[in-house]
Amino acid sequence: MSAKPPETFGLDRLPTPIGTALLVTDAGGVLRALDWAEHEPRMKELLRLQYGAVVLEDGRSPRELTSALTGYFKGDLGRLKTIKWRVAGTPFQHKVWTALPKIPAGTTMSYGALAAKLNAPKAMRAVGHANGSNPISVVVPCHRLIGADGSLIKYGGGLERKRWLLEHEGVVVKSMA
Description:
Layout: E1 7-16, E2 19-25, E3 31-36, H1 40-51, E4 54-58, H2 63-73, H3 91-99, E5 109-110, H4 111-117, H5 124-132, E6 145-146, H6 159-168
Parallel strand pairs: 1-4, 5-6
Antiparallel strand pairs: 1-2, 2-3
């Protein structure tokens, strides 16, 4: 019985106003992961959980991808919608990850509201878990989920980065106590 060969993805780095983004793309140039340089071990673990053995080879991301992300960080928020991405994961994770980009830039939603929108009103924790397992930060905008009371809670890239992303998109963020 032969083991499945490891998935090979390209790894690029993109400077942004909030740190160096790690961009993981497949052979077709489709985004498979976006995380922050200081969280590379977590990103590799999420990739392993989704794909099994993974090999990351340094390489350039497609120009359309880096251009779209650079445009987003310069204020052209709609550029995120032009990025092609693909994820593995469970059917429920897919439901959550597909719903996140439908939350418009400049708005937020609570975990409970998203659970209700997915016809799973008691699945707030499951939504939170799926959100936390999102391998494509920013593009699949997990930062747009907040607490029911408007508070910023749980963001893999750190709450200051979440605050920056929301404010960049025009959200008035509740002050931290």
